[in-house]
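Spend some time on this chain, tokens included, and walk me through the fold:

. . .
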Amino acid sequence: MQKSLSDARARQELLDRLDRLTPDATPRWGTMTAERMLAHLADWMLMASGEIKTAPRGRVLRYPLLKQLAIYWLPFPRGVATSPELIGRAPLEWGIEHASVCQRVESFENLYLKAEWPEHPVFGQMSPKAWGVFAYRHMDHHLRQFGI
């Protein structure tokens, strides 16, 4: 079974891993600093809640089979460009960014229960289940990027 941010155990696992992240952590790949990664995760969660709007990017992964493979099964590729809206702002102070991401992880259960979700910029319309799994996998990818 896929881990999902809708599951309390998966959320706690991510929170424990986030607590091990330090401002001076070195990425295993890519150019993001730990602070920029936290800002990206916070903004990504704002995108998932509909608070940040993103422009659509590509159409290939909107086909049902490819979409399902990418959301649930295929490994995340390294170095793929994200939506400019999710990477453009300067990170805030470490403690603020860290607390923001942790708060958004903790409150994902409430977000998961909402009736309407925004379209994902790459995958288009997604079910709550897909959002939960993809949110977990996205955070896992970036924590692994920093060896956590």
Observations:
- Residues 36 and 90 are 7 Å apart (CA to CA).
- Residues 8-145 form a domain with the Four Helix Bundle (Hemerythrin (Met), subunit A) fold (CATH 1.20.120).
- The helical segments are 8-20, 34-48, 64-73, 94-106, 108-112, 128-145.
- The chain is about 50% helix and 0% strand.
